[in-house]
Specification:
Layout lengths: L5 H5 L7 H15 L8 H17 L2 H10 L2 H4 L15 H9 L19 E7 L1 H6 L1 E12 L15 E2 L8 E6 L2 E6 L8 E2 L12 E12 L8 E4 L15 E7 L6 E3 L2 E8 L1 H6 L1 E7 L2 E7 L8 E4 L15 E7 L7 H13 L9 H17 L2
Parallel strand pairs: 1-9, 11-15
Antiparallel strand pairs: 2-7, 3-6, 4-5, 8-9, 10-11, 12-13, 14-15
Helix pairs in contact: 2-3
Subunit structure: Homodimer.
InterPro entries: DnaJ (IPR012724), DnaJ_C (IPR002939), DnaJ_domain (IPR001623), DnaJ_domain_CS (IPR018253), HSP40/DnaJ_pept-bd (IPR008971), HSP_DnaJ_Cys-rich_dom (IPR001305), HSP_DnaJ_Cys-rich_dom_sf (IPR036410), J_dom_sf (IPR036869)
GO molecular function: ATP binding; heat shock protein binding; unfolded protein binding; zinc ion binding
């Protein structure tokens, strides 16, 4: 499948300034970044496409080559990502380029070390745990920094040597005719150094496998889809590179009584015919315990009652939702003969379907009669 024009990908004109390109990238990167679109392969692909376009158009040499030769300027040296992007990439590098000037960083990072992978831990919570928050102990199998070599990968008493191929840069320049493209150094794999005497425990990787035990604090008010980020608790990088992050993904189990929608809770409360007709006070459940709810006379089934402040406190704004109780008229069952007789007497006293005690029924049947009269005209 042919690649899209890089200017089109970023939504800028061909004479756009570097500042305009960075501004366009910042907007798209925030929209498609994997931290916001986890699990969506299509949006992750878009992020890589945006990232690749940004890398070319903010490099004056590469941009000049692209303007002259198009994608052909890079396809000869590695295809796919043009030999300078590659794989999933280090999202931190790009964000450092865009936001560096704001926070005083400025310019590209010199280190070629690739940070460790981010990890995800799925945590199931009950509704009560999600609403009130909790602390939990979790076990995460991961890679951690090797202690004997302190993450360097070199045996104690020795240290990595500067790569003689790239002289520590981690990249080499490949030339083919008119083209000159930066590629990862094949000797040191982009690290800029060579380990001639590797550590016996990690065999030169600078990290070892281990199951870590962590305490996670779940804030009150979380809901399904929320993520808690534990910075630096992901996989350790190779050869002392920074660790990735651990994301605790929250999923709230279904509750037998309550349904949650944002900060509000909903529940159905059965009421008797006599309570609906005459009114009364019933006991309803809340997450804080029992509460009394007044039912006015002549309440119809399906009527909603709002109990303010009995919902969920938002984890972000601190606002507290409500509990919405839907009353449902319960038809009595297993009636004895006396009860059936009383109901028949009551029915007779109502004066049939057109009685004044049944305004909805009367309106319905009047409408039905009109409908059939219109059909026969």
């Amino acid at each position: 499948m042919s690649k899209r024009d890089y200017y089109e990908v970023l939504g800028v004109s061909k004479d756009a300034s570097e500042r305009d390109i960075k501004k366009a990238y910042k907007r798209l990167a925030m929209k498609y970044h994997p931290d916001r679109t986890a699990g969506n392969a299509e949006l992750e692909t878009k992020f890589k496409e945006v990232k690749e376009a940004y890398e070319v158009l903010t490099d004056s040499q590469k941009r000049q080559m692209y303007d002259q030769y198009g994608h052909a300027a890079f396809d000869q040296n590695g295809g796919g990502h043009g030999g300078f992007g590659g794989g999933q990439g280090d999202f931190g590098d790009i964000f450092g380029d865009v936001f560096g000037d704001i926070f005083g960083g400025g310019g590209r990072r010199q280190s070629r070390q690739q940070r460790g992978a981010d990890l995800r831990y799925n945590m199931d919570l009950s509704l009560e745990e999600a609403v009130r928050g909790k602390e939990a102990e979790i076990k995460v199998p991961t890679w951690v920094s090797c202690s004997p070599c302190d993450g360097s990968g070199a045996k104690a008493g020795s240290k990595p040597k500067t790569c003689t191929t790239c002289h520590g840069a981690g990249q080499v320049q490949m030339r083919q005719g008119f083209f000159a493209v930066q590629q990862t150094c094949p000797t040191c794999q982009g690290t800029g150094s060579i380990i001639s005497d590797p550590c016996n425990k990690c065999h030169g990787q600078g990290r070892v496998e281990k199951t870590k035990t962590l305490n996670v604090k779940i804030p009150a008010g979380v809901d399904t889809g929320d993520r808690i980020r534990l910075s630096g608790e992901g996989e350790a990088g190779l050869h002392g590179a920074p660790s990735g992050d651990l994301y605790v993904q929250v999923a709230v189990r279904e509750h037998p009584i309550f349904t949650r929608d944002g900060n509000n809770l909903y529940c159905e409360v059965p009421i008797s015919f006599s309570t609906a007709a005459l009114g009364g006070e019933i006991e309803v459940p809340t997450l804080d315990g029992r509460a009394n709810l007044k039912i006015p006379a002549e309440s119809q089934t399906g009527k909603m009652f709002r109990m303010r402040g009995k919902g969920v406190k938002s984890v972000r704004s601190g606002a507290v939702g409500d509990l919405i109780c839907k009353v449902v008229l319960e038809t009595p069952v297993n009636l004895n003969e006396r009860q059936k007789e009383l109901l028949r007497e009551f029915e007779e006293s109502m004066g049939g379907m057109n009685g004044k005690n049944r305004p909805k029924a009367q309106g319905f049947f009047d409408g039905v009669k009109k409908f059939f009269d219109d059909l026969t005209k």
